[in-house]
Specification:
alpha+beta; 418 residues; 15 helices; 5-stranded mixed beta barrel
Length: 418
């Protein structure tokens, strides 16, 4: 441990973490909302969506969205505005185009229904809703103004939104298995069975549903393999980074996914310039420092804390646990149990403070479920590619995916302890 403290990157990250989580240093919100209009009097906003919509139970079944304001409106007129504000969209608006989502009434929207996706430029009429913990803006209706940026950037945002919608339609056709695959590949959980989603959380497997290094590794390893076969190491590394960039672009930024992206980018640059590969804890510490600067709002999110503490635990305690578990166990099994135990130990304080409990059964549950989920991801990805060229094979592929899903869901529910 002493050698780690002599490393300036590791020491800096420890000091920064202490300042953040002790409360000695306050985190400033990025792009705070500013306007000449009083927030309590605002009845409308003009601007664009700057995050993926996330379903929340806080206001019924509304979707939480970060909205970057350009103009604020009150009964007295229009005022200049800037910065980010948290809005809640009724599910009827967000899911207007989603497959299988039918509502008898949808709020009136000028210009028709619109895609609530990152980059959508909108004028929104708002209602101020008071709840325990504060007051929040709920969207009543809206008007489509196009997409963020110039013509090229608008095309990218629109293409991404339509691609995510089309992917939802394909996954909906695959039933329950499609709902899980949708969550794993895009972060959208609208079609994931609630009992199974809760089961992942209560069995200590919530990290599997969180977009992270496992998902980036899947895309990157496939692209890197074909690149190295074709032209060698440099092309393989470049294709691997390109696949990772595509996945982050498609899925959107989340704390655990951005941490994995930073690590992949650093390792790519390290390989490109033929530098010595950094040790695991130094790499993780550098990612922590960069992540805290780029997205300081992530620091207090559960996914951020669990992502970094679990990896730190594996790096620091992994070797110790591998010596503790019996040597007669096959090496890969001993490695998997050791890593899972290390992660559970390191994340225990975070789990207790956020969820009020720890889930030690996750050590065994992860050993059984993780390989199946990885296989599920591989089969699902290749299944999507096959269906794009041979749509008539969607039925057989769906049957195979649902069979594997049944095994995964049964295991997850078996280890679920409330």
């Amino acid at each position: 441990m002493v050698k780690y403290l002599k490393n300036p990157v590791i020491l800096s990250s420890l000091i920064l973490a202490f300042l953040f989580y002790s409360g000695l240093a306050k985190i400033r919100e990025q792009k705070p909302f500013l306007s000449l209009a009083k927030e309590s009097e605002i009845t409308g906003l003009r601007g664009f969506i700057s995050s993926n919509p996330v379903k929340s139970s806080f206001l019924g079944s509304a979707y939480k969205v970060t909205f970057t304001a350009e103009k604020a409106f009150t009964k007295d007129g229009a005022f200049s505005a800037s910065g980010n504000v948290c809005l809640y969209f009724p599910q009827e608006i967000v899911e207007a185009y989603y497959p299988g989502k039918i509502y008898t009434s949808i709020p009136e929207m000028e210009g028709g229904a619109f895609l609530v996706e990152n980059g959508s430029r909108l004028f929104l009429e708002l209602e101020r809703v008071s709840k325990a913990g504060g007051a929040f803006f709920l969207v009543k209706r809206g008007k489509v103004l196009g997409w963020k940026g110039g013509s090229l950037l608008q095309g990218f945002y629109k293409f991404r939104a339509l691609s995510r919608l089309q992917f939802k339609r394909l996954m909906y056709a695959w039933g329950k298995a499609g709902g899980l695959l949708l969550a794993l590949l895009s972060g959208s959980r609208e079609y994931t069975e609630k009992s199974v989603a809760d089961g992942f959380r209560d069995s200590g497997l919530s990290h599997i549903l969180a977009l992270s290094g496992m998902h980036l590794g899947l895309f990157g390893s496939i692209a890197g393999f074909f690149g190295k076969k074709a032209r060698g190491r440099n092309l393989g590394d470049a294709l691997q980074l390109a696949a990772i960039l595509f996945f982050v672009w498609f899925a959107g930024i989340s704390p655990s996914l951005f941490r994995a992206f930073l690590a992949a980018l650093i390792l790519y640059l390290n390989s490109l310039f033929r530098m010595n590969r950094p040790d695991g804890l130094s790499l993780l510490s550098l990612c922590f420092l960069l992540h805290s600067v780029i997205f300081p709002s992530h620091i207090m999110e559960a996914a951020f804390m669990l992502s970094y503490t679990s990896l730190a635990g594996i790096i620091i305690f992994g070797k110790i646990f591998r010596k503790v578990y019996p040597v007669f166990l096959p090496y890969r099994i001993r490695l998997a149990i050791s890593d899972s135990s290390s992660a559970q130990l390191a994340t225990a304080p975070v789990s207790l403070s956020i969820f009020g409990k720890i889930m030690p059964q996750g050590i065994i549950a992860g050993l059984l479920v993780s390989p199946l989920v990885f296989l599920f991801l591989y089969l699902g990805l290749f299944g999507v590619i096959i269906c794009l060229f041979l749509p008539f094979l969607s039925g057989p592929i769906s049957a195979i995916m649902n069979g594997l899903y049944l095994v995964i869901s049964r295991l997850v529910l078996f280890f679920r302890f409330k």
